[in-house]
Amino acid sequence: MRDKPCRKCGATERYPTSRRCAPCTRRSNNAWRIANPTKARAYGRKWYGKQTRIARHGRRLRRIYGLSVAEREAMERKQGGACAVCKRLGTEFQKGLVVDHCHATGVVRALLCTLCNTGIGCFRDRPAILRAAAKYLERHHARAT
After folding, report:
1. How far apart, in whole angstroms, are the C-alpha atoms of residue 97 and residue 93?
2. Is the model more confident about 57 or about 135?
3. Which of 9, 21, 42, 97 could staple 111 via S-S, CB 3.0–4.6 A?
C-alpha cells in the first residue's frame, strides 16, 4: 500500500487508507470547509457535540468522584438500574441515576434518582434529621387519615 505515491503531489508517505498524503488531505479538507461553511459547522456540531458530551461526563466522574465510566456502569448494573433508596428505575428520570457521595469524606455511596439525592442533600446528609422528618410525617399522616 505504501509503495503507491500520493495522487496529488506524488509523495511516498501517505495514509494507509487514503490515496493522498497528510498535507494534501489537510488542504483538501480545509478547502471543502471554506467552500461549504454551513455543512462544515453542522457536521462539526453533530460530531464534536457527541464526543465532548461523553468525554465531559467521563472527566467529571473521574474528577469529582474518582470513578471511571465503567465503574459507574458496574454500580448501576449491581443496583439493577434502580435508585438505592426508592427503587424506581433510572429510566423513569430525565437525568437517570446520579452519583451520591458523602460531602464530608467524598466517599461514593450509591446511585440515586435526582429526587432522593436532592432530599438527602436538603437534610444535610444527617440521619438524625431524616429520622425526625420521618417521625413528623408519620405523626401528621396518622392525623390526616
Report:
1. 8
2. 135
3. 97
